């Protein structure tokens, strides 16, 4: 049996050997490049912290006005104008802030009986809003009713804008400190060392919700002889901060 390949087969055989060797080399190189050691992999911890700050509500945002019913539209409109002018004059004399008209209406007043519609007259309104210190709000509401106001649509208690802005900064600071404490506790428990903070995300500071202090009962006759109490409360500012820390 002849152990040697035919002369015509030798070139093809060695070409195949070279191709296989080259392919193995490429696979080996790719495997080395795609398998980094654990030491080269970035290691990081992500933590979120929360912070909240409570601030007193010192501003009263009030909405009040005049509502009149009458037989004719002209009669109603005249009474609304007279009463509203007196109320606005009072509010201006007390130097309230952000005084503005928020609504004026004049509409027919119908009644329905046995499927029949009857015009009973007209209803007119003029509503204004304003801001004042909460300690002045109760007396001012009482005086506005005496001047001609017939309805109080609501009183919201809020903190001053400057106090809210300062509290938001403090809440962010507390949230950042809380996130750092959490990271230190986790890494310390695992005997790991913190290297540096690689990213910071402030997730937003929630706008404080006003405290509602509206009471329709304030207009009842039994309360007219007493001063209307408007007691301030607190608003809470909450912030969240997320840190990514390399270790």
Structural description of this entry:
With 247 residues, the protein is an alpha+beta fold. The protein has helices at residues 10-33, 73-93, 134-147, 161-189; strands spanning 44-56, 59-70, 97-113, 116-133, 151-158, 196-205, 211-212, 234-246. The strands form 2 sheets. Strands 3-4-2-5-7 form a 5-stranded antiparallel β-sheet. It is elongated, with a radius of gyration of 38 Å. Residues 214-224 have low confidence and may be disordered.
Helix content: 25-40%
Largest sheet: 5 strands, antiparallel
Give the averaged pLDDT, no decimals: 84
Please give the number of β-strands.
8
Distance between the termini: 69 Å
Strand percentage? 35-45%
Largest sheet, spatial ordering of strands: 3-4-2-5-7
- Uncertain segments are 214-224
Question: Can I get a quick summary?
Answer:
Helix content is 36%, strand content 38%. The chain is α+β, with helices and mostly antiparallel strands and 247 residues long. The protein has a 5-stranded antiparallel beta sheet.
Per-chain topology:
Layout: H1 10-33, E1 44-56, E2 59-70, H2 73-93, E3 97-113, E4 116-133, H3 134-147, E5 151-158, H4 161-189, E6 196-205, E7 211-212, E8 234-246
Antiparallel strand pairs: 1-8, 2-4, 2-5, 3-4, 5-7, 6-8
Helix pairs in contact: 2-3
